[in-house]
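Extended Data, panel c. Modelled sequence:
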Amino acid sequence: MLKLAFDICLSFLGLLLLLPFFVVIAILIKFDSRGPIFFKHTRIGKNGKPFKMYKFRTMIETKTFIGPSLSPENDPRVTSLGGILRRFKINELPQLINVLKGDMSFVGPRPEVQEFVDLYSNEEKKVLSVRPGIVGPNQIFMRNEEELYPLGVDVREHYIKYIMPQKLRIDLNYINSRSFLIDLKYIFQGAMVTITGAISRRHFLNQKSQIGLFFIDTFLCMFSYFLSYLLRLEGNFPPKELIIFFHVLPYLLMIRMSVFIYFGFYNTLIRFIS
């Protein structure tokens, strides 16, 4: 009961606070490619009950089936903006709606599609005894799952044979030892790994120049915005203006960085610098 009340209150608060952010993401998605803002996919929840899980759409929209439900690294179906949303797990945020509706919890095993649930053994079906979650031990230990697929393998076969059994073992261990305090630990760890895991070691080595330029540009953007405020206010920063500054700054950075990444400005600038 405590967990349910916690889920409802926190998801409502999260949706309320993130509403302006959702609007910006929705506009960017519509500019990026044709199709709906949200991607709704049927997943299997508690006691085997199917439900529609919400995500921000990250793939091209087509009328016909063009690939597997699993998505490995560098999937050609993923849009330019979609790659950014996936890297920072922003595409998962609409699942707060599922938590508020009671389909999901903040912490729990990730919900699977029916075709994979049908392959569960009787022991593995115990993961269906609890509500699925936005975050869980698998999202911490296997944060960048798309990087686990070797090049050229059959994605579905590799997932069923190697990745899914490992995920189910981890989920069963969680179910057998779960508690409210453990859930709080996973929420904290999930938030941390979302930030730190956005740039994996392999991703960093492949794009270290662009990443370095990204952080330099972020710092310069913050500094120039602060300096413009300082000049406009003639060196005096009243508390009211300080609040406005910190409220606007995240949206300014988000819009600027999203536009720069989407149009590949960091890649272009690196060619000129080098």
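The chain has two domains: 1-199, 203-273. This feature is highlighted in the accompanying rendering.
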